[in-house]
Design brief:
FAD/NAD-bd_sf; 9-stranded mixed beta sheet; 2 domains; flavoprotein; FAD/NAD(P)-binding domain; 27 strands; single chain; EC 1.14.13.-; monooxygenase; about 500 residues
Length: about 500
């Protein structure tokens, strides 16, 4: 593979494979390479190996727009999603464009050359590539470390402590007493999965999370596929689910008391009679202030009804030799403790960005349409929705990058850069979300603006109009050619 390409993609996960598919479908003759820090395709879905790992979105929206999801289960397990991503890459020949074990550490833009010089480490050596356009699909959290709080007394604990992001392949929880610390998507996935063979699993939470049961199979989508075939059924199922998600989100924001009551009523029906729902399943915040957790076929509630699992709402006073002592004085015995305590965010995979010799400080930049940076030319990144499936936004970013490159080609431009010269646009957090993992690191990310095009939209329907069909040359995006004197000098 050449060391100069038209487009350099960073990351071979769900977003990176999708970006490559959009690019090569639109420009078969254009060159591209994907640099992947790990040794396999799949990103998140290759990294996470904990029991029961699955999507927290339906696959008709988490799947690619261009490749129908054809399995019966809409809430899919991790291995099935990983196969889907890898099959997508293999069928399109994308895997031949990937350089594995290449961790990008620095990227410098030169206006004189109208190109990026990208440095990556590979087998302890520095590898350099140049590209006309840099497209980051590396997600927004650290792959090498999850968030684990400072647990008092942890040195005394005689059992096993594990973080879901680094699950030991040899860990056997059969017949063991397990405590899962946390109440987010990872915790509610782990508890019923481990409860199948563990002696007992306790989900220990400081405060409850909104949890909704959803059928693992989308009956309407499956019926439409049997009648119409995957090609015609998939977009219908996709839009049906997009509209359902949007309706729930909007209703949650406008009528939070109603949604709280509906969720509580549904949970009460699924839990044992007399269960203390308000202690363990009544959050202090409003619906969708944080991401709502989905449990397929109510598996968490079924595990609680069977007695295989339980929920304790309390705080940790200290670890002991045999488990944990809580602030209430209750003791929890544990052979294994799982710290499902969240992620660590990392802006742009920790890559140092430099423009014409000046290092870019992400918090000093503003995100254009949630996918480019002010003052950074020929650059795009993918951050998905927090209130819907990640891939919905990733697909739209891929489509927009294609449109942008066509615009450059048609008008003979070499570069484009977002410029915010409107003093009335005020800065806001890029991720306006109250989840702990966001609040811990949001100040290290670019800012959003108070109005378009500097906002990170959370409406797929709005973004379809804006990114798929909206005007490219909108005044905030500036286009230029390389200086004539530099071209002639060469």
């Amino acid at each position: 593979m050449t060391d100069h390409v038209d487009v350099l993609i960073v990351g071979a996960g769900l977003s990176g494979v999708g970006a490559a598919h959009h690019l090569q479908s639109a420009f078969p003759e254009r060159t591209y390479t994907i640099l992947e820090a790990r040794d396999a395709i799949g990103g998140t879905w290759d990294l996470f190996r904990y029991p029961g790992v699955r999507s927290d979105s339906d696959m008709h929206t988490l799947g690619y727009r261009f490749r129908p999801w054809t399995q019966a289960k809409a809430i899919a397990d991790g291995p099935s999603i990983l196969r889907y991503v890898r099959d997508t890459a293999a069928e399109a020949g994308i895997d031949a464009h990937i350089r594995f074990g290449h961790r990008v550490v620095r990227a410098e833009w030169s206006t004189v050359d109208a190109q990026w010089t990208v440095e990556a480490t590979h087998d302890g050596e520095t590898v350099r590539l140049t590209a006309k356009f840099l497209y980051l699909c590396s997600g927004y959290y650290r792959y090498d470390a999850g968030h684990t709080p400072e647990f008092p007394g942890i040195d005394r604990f005689g059992g096993t402590l594990v973080h879901p992001q680094h699950w030991p392949a040899e860990l056997d929880h059969t017949g063991k007493k397990v405590v899962v610390i946390g109440s987010g998507a990872t915790a509610v996935t782990l508890v019923p999965a481990m409860a199948e063979t563990a002696a007992h699993v306790t989900m220990l939470q400081r405060s409850p999370t909104y949890i909704m049961a959803l059928p693992a199979e989308d009956a309407l989508a499956n019926r439409l596929r049997s009648l119409l075939g995957a090609r015609f059924a998939y977009p219908v199922a996709r839009w049906k689910n997009v509209l359902s998600q949007t309706l729930l989100y909007q209703l949650s924001r406008r009528r939070p008391r109603l949604v709280r009551a509906l969720i509580r009523r549904a949970n009460t029906r699924l839990l044992p009679p007399g269960y203390d729902v308000d202690t363990h399943f009544k959050p202090r915040y409003q619906p969708w202030d944080q991401r709502l957790c989905l449990v397929p076929d109510g598996d968490l509630f079924r595990a609680i009804r069977r007695g295989n699992a339980s929920v304790v709402t309390d705080r940790i006073a200290t670890f002991t030799e045999s488990g944990l002592r809580l602030e209430s004085g209750e003791e929890l015995d544990a052979d294994i403790v799982v710290s499902a305590t969240g992620l660590k965010l990392l802006a742009f995979g920790g890559i140092r960005l430099v423009v014409d010799g000046h290092e870019v400080d992400p918090p000093e930049t503003m995100a254009y349409k949630g996918m480019m940076l002010s003052g950074v030319p020929n650059f795009a990144f993918t951050i998905g929705y927090t209130n819907a499936s990640w891939t919905l936004k990733a697909d739209l970013v891929g489509e927009y990058v294609v449109r942008l490159l066509r615009h450059l080609d048609a008008r003979g431009y070499d570069q484009c850069v977002p410029v915010n010269d409107d003093p009335s646009v005020t800065a806001r957090p890029l991720l306006d979300f109250d989840a702990g993992y966001v609040l811990r690191s949001v100040d290290e990310f670019p800012r959003a603006g108070s109005r378009a095009p500097w906002q990170l939209g959370m409406s797929y329907a709005h973004d379809v109009l804006n990114l798929r069909y909206g005007k490219i040359d909108d005044g905030a995006l500036r286009f230029s050619r390389r200086p004539v004197r530099e071209v002639l000098a060469r």
